[in-house]
Amino acid sequence: MQHPTSMAFPPKLTLYFSPKACSLASHIALEESRLLYEAVSVDIRAQENMSPAYLKINPSGAVPALGIGDAVLTESHAILTYIADLAPESGLLPRPGTLARVRAHEWMNWISGTMHVTYRSIFRSQTYAGDEPHAIAAVREHAKKKLAKVLREVEDRLGTSDYAVGGQFSVVDAYLFVFYTWSFDERIQTKLPDRPRYAALAERVFARPAVRRVLARERAVRAYELPPSFAQALSEAQ
């Protein structure tokens, strides 16, 4: 891989994340990559993402954003791919040109375009419904029903493999882990289908030392909900 002469390699990396947000996947990927990076908290619940300083970094106010030297990369799918390719020895994505590689992109596109949107429709229904209370309630209830279908699809897609693609841990598993933890959010308030394969995948991801380090770092900023067994394990490790 050739790198522009105008940018040092490896470049200085700065991850802008919010505790519990989808940026958790990029945070895990960086920790797993063993690349040097700085993690900067931009707490969405405290509206730090709308500060003038952060809007200069990412005008949309969204996280994650990844500073790459003087450049900024946004969108989880792009960031996860970049991190994996920057540290190919980490095996965070299958090699280019393989079916496993495009399956990984298929997964990530579906996660961001379907799974994330479904959760957002529950957590931030007004994004799609506007300010009308009846419309907000309708969007939220429809999304709760759709979430059950989405979780069943994850279960089917995982099949009998230990990981989502290629038989080993990848950034796809880190991305899926985020939304598994979100299914325990108190705002869901609906019965969800059993998901033993998804739960087993989440357990395998949680068992990774890099993942536990990231969770501890993020929860030191703001202690967010996790599946009870995960929260207990982190508490006992302190």
Whole-number average pLDDT? 94
Radius of gyration: 18 Å
Q: In terms of per-residue confidence, which ranges show pLDDT below 50 for 5 or more consecutive residues?
A: 1-5
Count of discrete alpha- or pi-helical segments spanning 4 or more residues: 10
Alpha-beta content class? alpha+beta
Main sheet: strands, sense, barrel: 4 strands, mixed
Structure characterization notes:
With 238 residues, the chain is α+β, with helices and mostly antiparallel strands. 54% of the residues lie in helices and 7% in strands. It is built from ten helices and four strands. The chain has helices at 23-33, 52-57, 76-86, 99-123, 126-129, 133-158, 171-182, 196-206, 209-221, 228-237; strands spanning 13-17, 38-41, 65-68, 71-74. A four-stranded mixed beta sheet has the order 2-1-3-4, covered by helices on one side. Helix 1 (23-33) links the parallel strand 1 and strand 2 (38-41). The chain starts with 12 loop residues before the first strand and ends with a helix. Residues 1-5 have low confidence and may be disordered.
